[in-house]
Amino acid sequence: MPQRVILGVSGGIAAYKAVEVCRRLVDAGLHVVPVLTPSATRFVTPLTFSAVASEPAQTELWNAPVPIPHTRLGQRADLIVIAPATADILARLACGLADDLLSATALATRAPVLVCPAMHTEMWEHPAVQENLATLRRRGVEVVDPDVGALAAGDVGAGRLADPQVIVERVLSLLERHRARPQSSGPSRAGSGASGAPHRDTGRDLRGRRVVVTAGGTREPIDPVRFLSNRSSGKQGHALARTAARRGAAVTLVTAAPFAPADEGIHVLAVETAEEMARATLPAAEQAEVIVMAAAVADYRPKRAAPSKLTRSERVPELELEPTPDILRALVERRRPGQVIVGFAAETGDALGKGMEKFARKGVDLLVVNDVMVAGAGFDHDTNQVALISAAGIEQLPLQTKDAVADAVWDRVVELLAAGDPVPPSAPTDEDPVHGAHPGAVRLGTEHARNAYLGQSIEPEDHR
Ligand code: C5P
C-alpha cells in the first residue's frame, strides 16, 4: 500500500509551487492528500490540487463529509509536509492551535511533520518566527530551510520556498527512515503542539551523554580586517549539535560559524581562530563522552598578524605561515577509556581512498568523509553525501539533508558507546559486507571495501 502523505498548503505566494511538490510526490508513488488553509485557497484553488493529487483537496474542518476529518487524516498519515509554511502556520503549530483543518491535523497525529517555511525576509528573520521554529524543532518537527532568492513583489532575500525537488527528496528520506524505524505506539504528545510525535524513533538515545561538537571554518588573522579561512559554512556541525540535543544529549557547540544555532539548550562557545577553538574544545572534551570534530580547522595561520591594516601603498606583503594546533590529535592523545572521537575529512577526489588512509592515521573511532566536489554535498549546501568509516567498515550514505547525515553519525556513535570500549581503529576487521545499516546505505567491511572501491593500494598523502 502506498504511504500516505498529507500535503499542507498555507497561504503564501509560494503556494503555487506546492502544486509541483504534489505532482512529484504522486509521481514518487505516494498517496497524497492536499489540505489547504483558507488563505491558501486565495492563491491556488483546491481544484488545482485535486487534479494532481491522489484524492480531492480538503479545506474544511466543518461541513466536511466525515464528522471529524482532522483525526482521520492525522491518524492515517505516514507524514505531514507543510509547503509553503507561512509565519502564521508556524506560530499556530508552535502554540498548538487547532482552529482549521491543517493545524488540527498536524496536532492530531503521531506522524513526522516537515515544515518548509516561505515568507518575506523581514518576517523570516523576526525573532518571533525563529523562536517558533526553534520550539517546533525541539519537538522533533523537521524543517527544510528556505533559500535566498526572488520573493513576492520584486523583493530579493532569504525566505524563498526551497526547491520542490529538495522538498520531495526530504519527504522521501524521512519516510524511508520512519519505515526502517517504526513509530512508537506510546501516547501522543499532541498537547505539546505540532505533530507531538518523535521525528525519529531514536527517541532520546543520547540522554545523559555529554557531547562536544565543533563547527565552521576557523579564521586566522592577517591583519585586523583580513583573515585566512575556508568555505565551511558550519551547517553540518550545527546540524550535529541540533540533532544531538534533540536526542537528549547535553551539547557544547564550539563554533567558528558566523551564525548561532536557534535551538535552546545548546551551550555555544563562539570562537574565531584554531587557537581559540583548541582552548575552548580541549577543556570541554575532558567531561564529554563524545567529541565530534566537524569544524574545518585551518591547518596553517600567518605567523604574525599585522597590528594595523596593511595598506596598498606598502609593498606586497609576504605571509609566513605556521601550523595551527592539531586539536583532533590532542583529543586522541588524551582520550579517556570509552570516549568516542569522531573526525571529519573534506576531500576533493578519491575521497574514500584518502578517508581510509586518514582513518588509519588519525586514531578516531569514526571518520565522516565527504567529497566536497560532488554536486549538492559539502560546503554551504543544506544537503551532504558522506561515507562513514569505522573499524566495522565503510558505510556509503546517499545524498541527504545535513540533519539526516547528522542522525546517521549519531546512530553510529550510539553503537560505539554501547560497545563500551570502542574497537581500536588501528585494528580494522576483515568482515563480510553488511547491508542496510542505514536507509540507502551500503556498509562494507574495511578490507572488502578497500578492494571493492579502490582496487589499489593507498598512497599516503603529504601531511604535516
Ligand atoms: O587532516 P585533516 O585536516 O583533513 O583532518 C580533518 C579533521 O581534523 C577534522 O575533524 C578537523 O576538525 C580536525 N582538525 C583539527 N585541528 C586542525 C586541523 C584539523 O582538529 N588543526
Describe the structure.
- With 464 residues, this protein is α/β, with parallel strands linked by helices.
- Helices cover 32% and strands 22% of the residues.
- The protein contains 14 helices and 23 strands.
- The longest helix is centred in the middle third of the chain and has 17 residues, at 164-180.
- The radius of gyration is 24 Å and the shape is globular.
- Strands 12-11-8-13-16-17-19-20-23-22 form a ten-stranded mixed sheet, with helices on both faces.
- It has two domains: 4-192, 3-Layer(aba) Sandwich (Rossmann fold), CATH 3.40.50; 210-454, 3-Layer(aba) Sandwich (Rossmann fold), CATH 3.40.50.10300.
- β19 and β20 form a beta hairpin.
- Bound molecules: cytidine-5'-monophosphate.
- Cytidine-5'-monophosphate is lined by residues 214, 274, 293, 295, 297, 299, 324-328, 343-345.
